[in-house]
Specification:
Elements lengths: L1 H59 L19 H5 L22 H4 L54 E3 L1 H4 L10 E3 L14 H13 L4 H10 L6 H28 L3 E13 L8 E9 L8 E6 L4 H7 L5 E5 L11 E5 L1 H11 L11 H22 L4 H24 L8 H10 L2 H4 L13 H17 L2 E3 H4 L1
Parallel strand pairs: 3-6, 3-8, 6-7
Antiparallel strand pairs: 1-2, 3-4, 4-5
Helix pairs in contact: 6-7, 9-10, 9-12, 10-11
Amino acid sequence: MASSAKDIQLRELKDTVSQLKTMVSEQTELIRSLRLIIDEKSGHEKALQEQVDYLTKKLFGSSSEKRSDDIPGQQNLFDEAEMEQDPSLPEEETVIREHTRKKKAAHEDLFKGLKVEKVVIPLPEEDQVCPVCGTQMVLIGEEYVRRELEFIPATCKVIEYYSQSYGCPSCKEGLGDTEKPVIIKSQVPAALVGKGPASASTVAWTMYQKYANGLPLYRQEKDWKQYGAQISRTTLANWIICCSQNYFQPMYDYFHRELLKRSFAMADETRVQVLNEEGRRAQTQSFMWLFRSGEDGLPAIILYGYSPTRSGSHAREFLEGYSGYLETDGYQGYNNLPGIRRCSCWAHIRRYFIDAVPKGKQYDYSQPAVQGVQYCSRLFAIEDSINKKYPGDYEKRKQLRLEKEKPVLEAFWSWLDQQKPVRNTRMDKAVNYVLNRRDTAETYLEDGRCSFTNNLSENAIRPFAVGRKNWLFSNSVEGAN
């Protein structure tokens, strides 16, 4: 009986141990699941906080990407002196001769090129008598005192063309070989737009005000009224569209053909709203594309093109027949264009890391995002040094890029492969953005004429973006074109 009781007790203990093991296993699995949930929630919270910081910076912070890294006690990822100057690049010997420093020019430089009108202020006749002896005084010289800038407002005038008629008096008297009088009229130059009052100077000024100064047509309408001309904004728009189609389109087509002959091109795109477009709502976003020539030493060609969507088919259609390098941002619509070697913009790559830097941590070099910025800044420093020392020497640029920048790139890729950022954070987006463009990010090493960034395109499209903030939208597709 005693043995049987012990066996029962032993079995009960074994069952208890088994139950406890199962319970421990279940609790361990629960803890692991809860940790995963906590990590996911923490990552989501971090991503949301990053988004808040990013939007706050966009609204109230500086838009410049320049950073002041000269902080006492801080060690940069790269030596500060090397960031500004690569000692391995050959130095050009400069001979400084003794000289006298010229006085800094002021108004002469400000008004250089303007017509100068000299105004002499004579002494009143009653004051031209010597106060001591009463003798009539004589002019002995003049002295420059000051200068001022005078603004002459623009004026409008109406030019009326008359055609003169010439008749033959002999034929009128029946002395010639014809029974009808012979009359010849002088040819009046054709109107610029239909039979309207538009002149070349009027339309040119309207275009300049809108596209260079960002002045909307409704404000130009008021401006013309102040000059005494009643011209509606609709008329101004029709003038622009008509002249663009009749005079600019052939020139645009010519430069388009010339651009396709180049070997280096750049592209960018920005949003534009068109109100009256068939089959689309007024709130639908359309796009203005920019295509331009690259840094090949030839005269620049810059062209705009309207498209209702951001589809890569527009880029494919515009660049049909082009074969060469294309510098762009990270938009995938430029992928798989036939005959094109794509170059990624390093300014965009650096921007992703800058946006990933935690708030208040821009000088904390233990932060991975700050380290990413430093790698990019190192490349920018070398690139600037090369361009300053050898401007226009594309072979030298290629050689030094391979010698100085490629090792930095290799270290950058190695560092990037080791990064394990939290999912959906800005650092995660930055790492994935760069890794997905690893091949195109190094394309610029193949030829010294390849651009390191797409900044030339962004600078060219910026006036359009600034103007858009003023005129807001285009009324028609013709106006957008």
